[in-house]
């Protein structure tokens, strides 16, 4: 299991992650845009979102650092654009952490299956720290 940092950007994620890849001499990042996600029949993706980065990551000196753009219309506050991501192969552990941290906090997304994970969720704890939880079954992952 690891605790990874997740950085959000306001439309310039691609530029930032390519810059960091150059600075830290990492492999070129694999970038998934919002436009490359499976279509949702209940939601039409706005044109301005299609080329924005939904997810990418770099391994910087042994640490996973994940990046994305905020979705158009979502709040972006410089300085508050960092969350911590728990990636684990232990589903019970993810559920336990999530349910403890949501006490007195605010759930951003209940634990649920997504196209990238059998169990993903996010919560802002009572201290204002955002946590993301992602079950890594070993088959596919963030």
Secondary structure class reads alpha+beta
Query: What value does the Rg take, in angstroms?
Result: 15 Å
Dominant shape: globular
Mean of residue pLDDT values: 89
Strand order of the largest sheet: 2-3-4-1-5-8-7-6
Number of DSSP-assigned strands: 8
Strand content: 35-45%
The total count of helices amounts to 2
Note the quaternary state here.
single chain
Largest sheet: 8 strands, mixed
Helix content: 10-25%
Order of helices and strands: EHEEEEHEEE
As residue ranges, the low-confidence spans are none
Terminal residue distance: 13 Å
What order do the helices and strands come in, and which of them pair?
Layout: E1 2-9, H1 13-23, E2 32-33, E3 53-60, E4 63-69, E5 82-88, H2 91-101, E6 106-112, E7 120-124, E8 130-135
Parallel strand pairs: 1-4, 5-8
Antiparallel strand pairs: 1-5, 2-3, 3-4, 6-7, 7-8
């Amino acid at each position: 299991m690891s605790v990874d940092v997740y950085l959000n950007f306001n439309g310039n994620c691609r530029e930032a992650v390519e810059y960091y890849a150059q600075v830290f001499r990492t492999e070129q990042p694999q970038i998934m845009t919002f436009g490359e996600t499976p279509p949702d029949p209940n939601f039409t993706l706005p044109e301005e979102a299609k080329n924005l980065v939904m997810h990418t990551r770099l391994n910087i000196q042994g640490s996973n650092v994940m990046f994305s753009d905020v979705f158009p219309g979502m709040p972006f506050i410089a300085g508050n654009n960092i969350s911590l991501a728990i990636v684990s192969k232990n589903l019970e552990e993810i559920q336990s952490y999530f349910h403890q941290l949501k006490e007195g906090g605010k759930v951003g997304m209940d634990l649920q299956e997504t196209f990238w994970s059998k169990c993903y969720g996010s919560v802002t704890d009572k201290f204002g720290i955002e946590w993301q939880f992602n079950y890594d079954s070993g088959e596919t992952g963030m």
